[in-house]
Amino acid sequence: MSAKPARPEQLPLALPHRPARGREDFLVAPCNEAAVAWIDRWPDWPAPALTLYGPEGSGKTHLLHVWAEAAGAPVWSAADLRVEGLDERLGARRWVAVDAADAAAEPDALFHLFNMLRERSGAMLAGARVAPARWTMGTADLRSRLAAAPSVALGTPDDALLGAVLMKLFADRQLPVAPELIEYLSARMPRTFEAALSLVDRLDRMALAERKGLTLPLARRALESLDESE
Q1: 225, containing H or E segment
Q2: How many helices (H) and strands (E) does the chain have?
Q3: Helix (H, G, I), strand (E, B) or coil at 53
């Protein structure tokens, strides 16, 4: 009797999940407390712009959404900003959050948006990887005006915050996880928010593909694959 052919490996789909981005969901620690203080200080800002900068996964987008909810402002991706139609898109708004501002497809659109909001006594909250003083894109006027406004860095996490971030990322995906596994991961993973994002995504996909819960052997393999990719 011939053996049955092996079943092809089922790769999990990249199912969307919705991160929790409320003010109460943000984890405050020394690496981000200055940025949180500026968000809480709004609308008492000394300039028509504020830039939050730091590595991917450091909480910039989360804080942009926290501020946007408080200000009744939209959150726009700088990659989608265009000079054409900007007036109509802005409408009567006075407050706008712009994510990935240092990756603007049309830096002139960012400059026009800043000027329009300033003329309305409004403000722009920008998220970026680096401070405006270090930008190479856009006009000198754009860089100098944003550099003259406050810029606040969000840093890398300490051990306690990294563990809390892992817990939150698993909760965002509705994945139950034991404290022992969090301790195991946080003690061995790279000390960046970006690594936490990648690691949780890998574990989610591996658990789905193998129809298993989150176990230490699975976590060990996810860490090994993360090291290999880096």
Answers
A1: helix 216-229
A2: 9, 5
A3: strand
- Determine contact, residues 60/98, Cβ cutoff 8 Å: no
- Which of 66, 75, 70, 73 is closest to 23 using CA atoms? 66
> Token pair for residue 120?
């309305």
Sign of the alpha-carbon torsion through 166, 168, 173, 174: positive
Mean pLDDT, to the nearest integer, of 155-174? 88
Contact 214, 179 (CB under 8 A): no
101-136 core/surface letters (b: 16 or more CB in 10 A; e: else): bbebebbebbbbbbebbbeeebbbbbbbbebbeebe
**Least confident range of 137-146, 167-176, 186-195, 213-222:** 186-195
pLDDT in tens, 89-128: 999 999 999 999 999 999 999 999 999 999 999 999 999 9
Q: Is residue 76 exposed (0-12), middle (13-18) or buried (19+ Cβ within 10 Å)?
A: buried
Does 36 score more than 80 pLDDT? yes
Give me the phi and psi of 96, to 5 degrees please. -145, 135
Look at the block and give the residue holding tokens 């406050």: 150
Integer CA distances (angstroms), 19 to 22, 53, 207, in order: 9, 20, 19
**What pTM does this model have?**
0.76
